[in-house]
Design a protein that fits this description.
heterodimer, A: 385 residues, alpha/beta, 16 helices, B: mainly alpha, 8 helices
């Protein structure tokens, strides 16, 4: 956890960081339990280790205010012990308090800067306690939201109360409203988890960067979404528009969907993407087993995105909205500047979730069941090409 | 997918408790305000009892305690063991009391009594860890002298600590019932049946 930011560091640097993290942890324990002389050495080692690991954290931990508070606490303790057991004992005890609080503060400062929701999740996953990691990640992510709610509640209370006494009287009410807000945020987090999977709990609002024109194509299963999108791609290509992306036509057996293929719209190349699992042990919690070949072709298709390209993605499912599957490649493609437009296919139930992910206030949703044959023209009109 | 609400509620109420400890707690401790342990204890009771009434599942109080400890560690001097031990004991006390009584008001009162009664003992343990045995002896002597100054001469330190623990415990029991009442109001505000 400490020194966790060394992911991009050179191997030698990582070793030094690990050694420094070990020394810091050992010194904290030593300062708490060793006799005064050893404790002083341990404190010195802890400060040097913190400086190697994270100099800004050391500076933040040893702010003037913090140091003054530590000196104040040590002096009070020294004074009380000197009164009860003599000056010699007082100085010794005060010195120990000073060292211990100093090291604990430095340790906490380094820890604060090394931990985030993703780090926690990785760590807890390693020890088989993923749920705990999700909860702690949610705790970190929700702090700004709670702080905002608390500030709003306090402002409202100040506006309604005249004077300090009135504000004090309102304090229980303020607590009650804050508890209610906390419950509401918990409800929202639970809803996000049920919609986008539990990993949503550790991910802060990381919206997709999207171009000016986004068309979301939706409709019920087997309503012809892929055919409509393929037709749009053909028409755009025929007038010289650079179309990138892919479609995922389904594979039917006796009227039942048994798999999907992925077709690169620019090259026409195809690869198998998913096949129905016979033993109901599919990937990503689905009934399908996915192939790396299909995802690889999807990445290749999206990697051709350039300014003025129209990106077509058929389709984004729950796996992508949980940040997996095609999503990393989609994020990269939509981050390309000056795109001509984007056309994204999702099932109806996922439209709100996709719109929440998109950083586009003017996305247009087209339901192929409602528009029928007019869907292709409507999409091209909306794209403005 | 399983209902995530017990987890998200525990996370959020633990966060609220941890944030109160990290802000108000740090302020009252650095300012050496009287009854700071009791004030923070009551804030914790409010969060835990409210959480348990909104999500009546075993384990939610403990999980909220873990979250609050986790956040408390990241504050100035957060590795200072006193409040960490206090949060842990309080979460455990409420969890056991509320689970044992089937989530009734009496559980909140018992949990509140135990949580706050352990405050003075927890203070002694913290003092021992941070400042050593000499500081604990000095503190106990200070208590004896203070008791003598108000007319209770020759009292054993154990008697003094027990008396203080009982008094804070009584405040905790009352606080538990108050937290139960506030939690009921929160439930009504959220449109849930109490």
């Amino acid at each position: 956890m400490v020194g966790g930011g060394s992911g991009d560091a050179a191997p030698g640097e990582t070793l030094v960081n690990r050694l420094a993290a070990f020394l810091l942890a050992t010194s904290i324990v030593a300062v708490l339990f060793a006799p005064p002389l050893y404790a002083a050495w341990a404190a010195l080692i802890a400060i040097v280790a913190a400086w190697i690991l994270d100099p800004p954290a050391l500076r933040a931990g040893l702010r003037v205010g913090a140091v003054l508070a530590i000196v104040f606490a040590a002096s009070i303790t020294a004074g009380v012990v000197a009164w009860a057991a003599g000056p010699q004992r007082g100085i010794e005890t005060g010195g120990m308090v000073l060292l211990r609080l100093l090291v604990l503060t430095v340790g906490a400062a380094v820890l604060v800067r090394s931990v985030n929701a993703e780090t926690l999740l990785r760590m807890t996953r390693k020890i088989g306690m993923e749920r705990l990691g999700l909860v702690l990640g949610l705790a970190l992510n929700s702090l700004p939201r709670l702080a905002e709610a608390a500030a709003d509640v306090w402002t409202a209370s100040r506006v309604r109360s005249d004077g300090a006494v009135a504000r004090l009287r309102r304090l229980p009410g303020v607590g009650e409203v804050l508890l209610s807000h906390t419950a509401r945020i918990a409800e929202e987090a639970a809803a996000a988890a049920s919609l986008r999977g539990h990993s949503a709990l550790t991910r802060p609002g990381n919206t997709l960067r999207s171009p000016v024109r986004v068309v979301v194509v939706t409709g019920p299963s087997n309503s012809g979404k892929t055919e409509v999108v393929t037709s749009v791609a053909g028409q755009l290509q025929s007038v010289g528009v650079d179309v990138v992306g892919f479609v995922q036509p389904g594979e039917l057996l006796e009227g039942k969907k048994v798999g999907f293929r992925l077709r690169d719209l620019a090259s026409g190349q195809e690869a198998p993407l998913a096949s129905l699992s016979e033993r109901d042990d599919g990937d990503f919690g689905t009934r399908f087993q996915f192939s790396d070949e299909g995802f690889r072709l999807g990445r290749e298709a999206l990697s051709r995105t350039a300014p003025e390209s129209v990106v077509i993605i058929d389709e984004l499912g729950p796996i992508e909205l949980r940040g997996q599957g095609h999503m990393p490649a989609v994020r990269k493609a939509l981050a390309v500047a000056d795109l001509g437009g984007a056309l994204i296919v999702v099932r109806r139930s996922l439209v709100p979730s996709l719109l929440a992910e998109l950083d586009a206030s003017d996305a247009v949703v087209i339901d192929v069941e409602d528009l029928g044959e007019r869907s292709v023209d409507a999409i091209i009109d909306t794209l403005g090409i | 997918m399983k209902d995530a609400r017990p987890w998200t509620y525990a996370a959020l109420f633990g966060t609220l408790w941890g944030a109160i400890e990290a802000t108000l707690g740090t302020a009252v401790h650095l300012g050496k305000l009287p009854l700071r342990g009791t004030i923070m204890g009551l804030a914790g009771l409010l969060c835990l009892v409210c959480l348990r009434r909104l999500q009546p599942r075993a384990g939610v109080c403990l999980l909220a305690g873990v979250v609050a400890v986790f956040l408390k560690v990241f504050t100035l001097g957060g590795l200072y063991p006193g409040p960490i031990i206090g949060i842990g004991i309080q979460a455990l006390a409420l969890e056991v009391a509320l689970t044992g009584t089937g989530g009734r008001a009496i559980g909140a009162a018992i949990g509140g009594f135990v949580a706050l009664a352990t405050n003075p003992l927890q203070k002694l343990v913290t003092m021992w860890v941070v400042a050593g045995t000499e500081a604990v002896r000095s503190y106990l002597r200070l208590l004896q002298e203070s008791a003598a100054a108000v007319g209770f001469e020759g009292l054993n330190p154990t008697v003094i600590v027990t008396t203080v623990a009982t008094a804070t415990g009584a405040v905790g029991a009352a606080g538990g019932l108050w937290a139960w009442w506030v939690a009921g109001r929160v439930m009504r505000r959220l449109g849930k049946h109490s």
